[in-house]
Amino acid sequence: MPQQPPKEVPEYDFKATWLLNFARFVEWPAKTFEKETTPFVVGVLGDDPFTKDELAKALKDKTIGKRSFEIRKSDKAADLKGCQIVFIPATENGRLDDILDIYKGLPILTVAEKEDSARKGTAFNILIKNKKPVLELNNKAAEAAGLKVSSQVRDWCEKVDP
Question: Does the global pTM surpass 0.90?
Fold first, then answer.
C-alpha cells in the first residue's frame, strides 16, 4: 500500500514521498532497465523546487528490489529522457506542451504540480488545494507511455480526462 504522509506535512515533503510511491506502484516495461540493479532515475526539470533536499531525503537508502535511486536535474527536457520519472515544476508550465512532445512514446512517468497539467497530458499532478494535498491521475497519459499504474495508487487519485 502506498505510504500516505501525515496531513500536516510540508508541501515538498509530500511531493517527494509521492514520487517515491509512484516509483513503487507503477510498472515500467521490462526493456526500461538494462539489468535488475540499474538505478531508478528521478529527474527534476528546470528550477528545483525541492529547496531543502526533500527529494534526496525521501529517496536516500530506498530501493525497489535491487534498484537504488538516482536524481538528475536539468533545464533541458531532452537531458532527462533516460529518467523513469520526471517532475515538472510549476515554473515549467509555460512550455508543458513542448516538454510532453519530447517525452512522447517514452516510458517516462511525467509528474507536474500546476493546475490542469494532467488534463494537458502529464500522467500525474500533485496539487495543494485549500491546504490539502490532491493527486490527479491521467491514466491515458500513463498508458500511452507504456506504464501501468497500480490500483492502490489509482484509488488515492482523482481521475482526470484529457
Answer: yes
